[in-house]
Predict the 3D structure of the following.
Amino acid sequence: MELARVWPIVCQYGIGAVLGAIGIWCGIRSGYVDLSDRKDRRLIWTLVGGFLLLLAAVCVFTFWAPFWVRGGER
Amino acid sequence: MTIPAPPIAATQFLGTDLDYAVILIYFVAVLGFGLMFARYTRSTRDFFFGGRRFAWWLIAFSCVATTVGSYSFIKYSAAGYKYGVCSTQSYLNDWFWMPLLLLVWLPIIYYRRVVSVPDYFEARFGRATRVAATAIILLYLLGYIGINLYTLGQTLEALLGWRMMTGAAVTAVAVALYVYAGGQTAVIMTDLAQGIILLVAGLGLFLAGVWHLGGFGNFWSLLPEGHRYAFSEFSHPDKFSFAGIYAQDGLANTGAFMLMNQGIIMRFLSLKSVKDARRMAVCWILILAPLAAIATSGSGWIARALAANGELTTEPKAAFVNAAHFLCRPGVFGFVLAALTAALMSTADTLVNATSAIFVNDIWKPFVRPNGSDRSYLRVARVVSLCAAAAGLALVPLFARNQSIYQAHGMFTAAVTPPIVVAILLGALWKRYSPAAAFTTLVGGGALVALSFVWPEILVRPFAFGMGPDSYKFMRALYGLVVCGTLGFVVGLLTKPRPLAEIAGLVTGTQLEAMRRFKGGEVNRRPGRKCRLTVTVDPGLGDSNIAALPPSAMTAMAADPGDMLYACDTRWWLGGLRSVHLRAGDAAEEGQIRIGPESAAIAHFTDGQTVVLEKIM
């Protein structure tokens, strides 16, 4: 695998993780996000889940799908 | 919302008379649909924020139409044709901003009742920063309306054979009329329809192409291997490298779109509650934006596969139109072109309404007529909507005659976006960020970015990861963010911040204070459930928004007297169009809710009607 295709994932999801962590930390620390509240907990899980879902999608379209042609041959 | 690419060259209209008729019918239908909502606009709160009453799903679809800008179908299908699946990158950058948006910025603007970025800047930093931000944003918006109408006129000229000014003028008049009459409600409703149309058309075109090619496997095999990656290479090619797209789009433009775009701020403030804003953002960014990415880029991928199959020859810029023409029957082709005009109009209407909001809230109210009545502000807002559309239209021949003015606006946008994004971010995240630091970030940062157009080799090249001048357009965003961030941080450290008591509710750590101010008392966060009650209009309650409720309803909602409530028509599909915010008051008879005539008029409720009631805070 060419690193030129891997660095974008590291860069986008690395910076994205930092931005996301700052946002979640600010929300929790301020008391605005109440982790004892089910809805607030669900929001945090959604934010993290969305991040992982997008990460999984770009991994598929970097490590597997580009080499997939007609019936799964590589 | 991305900056439109330079217009495509005119070609002959490819469709038939039936296609022409479909597009004309579409124009008339959108205009009529927008005008229908005039009766829901009775105040500036309605005109700018749709009465702050809408449901999340409605705003999510309308935001898709706004995001898919004037030139998205042409631009992203061209990128899809040339570079493949990585053309979706611009639409998939937004999720990383969600925590900052939903947990920091949104509670600040919603609960502090901030109506615009300049309004926030005045509350957070003082009047000088507000003036600077107002001037910058107004110039940006007016130029942007002009560019949208210009690219729109060019597109309609290429597609329908209309003269450029005719296309721009017809659209400007249609948009101005329904924004004038219905304000934000008309914008949201027409954008809802246009969002659905452009998604159906774009995704339908993609699926039709896949079906024509014999299934997804065949389609995928026909794409070159380099076209099947999620991202382009890190620093290659210069014109479409990952680093360039990410710096410009993923960081600067998406940051600007989420934090400073007046149209998007107004859309968030049109929601009935912050809880709905969370749902809306998740639906929009995680579900609809990826669909919009496929809808706008998909025809480019299909065109590439058709070309590889020897069935189509096209230039990248014409990939969308040619793929649509190849795949669609007469009438259907017209529908696809109507979707293209939907994308054009839905951006223009948002900009016109946003310009009006900035003018009224940041110039007219604070500086010209501070003590005017709401009715007078509404009149001014409507007139400014017409003027904004007219001013944008007046810029069209200027942009057409003089490409340097077109490019100058592009430069201006590139120069002002990083300073404003940095000023908002630091202002919302860092208590030490002082008024002097914010002003320096805006003015000094803007000047430093402007200098990068004069000395790109000296200033931008070190940020270009070894790429050549073709990448500077993108990498300038990274340079801008770094210099503005550094400037703001250093000046922030060296100057005196405002006392925390003065900026309560405007910076992270004080979101709960913003909630208290919004409610006017301690926030009730006990979970409750919705309940159904029958409306009784009580003239004794007059103009107040107090609602009398039975004790059982108060218990079910876990509400206390003084809590903020939201009453809505039972028909969910109205999306909150008939609804009103209330405050829990005295006790009423079992099964009933008593409200004043004013509240009933705002919500279009009648005596005896059943409504759904929920606690907002």
